[in-house]
Amino acid sequence: MEWTSVPCSIYRGGTSKGLLLRGQDLPQDPQIRDQLILYLFGSPDAKQVNGLGGATPTTSKLGIVEASKRSDADVDYTFGQVSIDTAFIDYRPNCGNVSSAIGPFALEQGIVRANEDGWTSVRIYNTNTDSIIVSRFMVKDGHFVPDGDTKIPGVPGTGSPIYLDFFDAGGSVTGKLFPTGSRLDEIKLSDGRKFHVTVIDIGNLTILMDSDELSLQGIEVSEQQIAHVLPTMEQVRQHIGRMLELFRQGEVVSPTTHALPKIAVVQSPKDYKSSDETYIQSKDYDIAARVLTMGRLHPTYAVTGGMALTVSSKFSGTISHYKSSVSSRDSKNLRIGHPAGILEMQAEVTEHPLAQVSRVTLIRTARPLITGLASVPVFREVVS
């Protein structure tokens, strides 16, 4: 077998960890490229022991970055959710946490340059959602400054703040902010059970459910506490996916191969203890929410899911608007109580003449963990 080396970096971005690659270092053929990437991650394997993957949904993530030819962007960024137990990469969703690492990575790789110390901006075109993200972060001597005083729940220690502005991100999957044509739908499963849902397409196509209808408190912090409702949530997710024609006729769908739509449960604020036993008071946040990723409870709250929840809460008639605290409804900000703490996001929306979103903003931190060369076999196209 012939071997070669591929330049790569591993970054923590927000509460996720991802393998970041330059597009110029990858094969042009998508099938060969994905073979190489799966080998890099060590998929499929539950432990990803023979690769660089982290063996959890939040640490088996991919970012491909290259210089952009667009006039409104500096770099193009493609996200991939790399399946752990199957040989599959889902390129349909984006990851807001990994997005926070893209600007620093592009700078460190020389894809973009900063001419002065201080704040710099990188305009990122996300190919998954066909939208622009502007990343703002600190630079010194031409390099990203990772250390600072900003703390985000779910990440030990502190770091330098990275501001992310997501523009025109609505309807990236379905073409509509509310793809069912309604802000609240009642669905009926094959066994006769009925549930109310809000389906919103921003950040990632997301389904919001009422935790009361699932007989959940809505403030659970471990997967074990919600394990009994996961099959029902998957049924709802697949029902909506088929209703929106996201899946082909007869296609076998599972959480590990079909990341979209995302699904979450929401609840009005209640006191609870976070996963690290911190006491979270109901007055300190606006809505409790728990989101799944690849069928697993997210240990914090996915940024793209937070975008969907924040925007949804600003529109009357949605489950999240009803469940959020009254004080948050007239504010741009939303404080989301999740298993590890509180995530605060900001959304600018308009109701008339159409429901529209102009911008969603949040703060993350990121850190480069390692940069080097990964050893991989030479993958070649098989000629039949």
Automatic annotation (TrEMBL):
A molecular-function term among this protein's GO annotations: isomerase activity
Pfam families on file: PrpF (PF04303)
Alphabetical list of InterPro entries matching this protein: PrpF-like
Keywords, sorted A to Z: Isomerase
Isomerase among keywords: yes
Metal-binding among keywords: no
Family membership noted in the UniProt record: Belongs to the PrpF family.
Name assigned to this protein: PrpF protein
Organism encoding this protein: Alicyclobacillus mengziensis
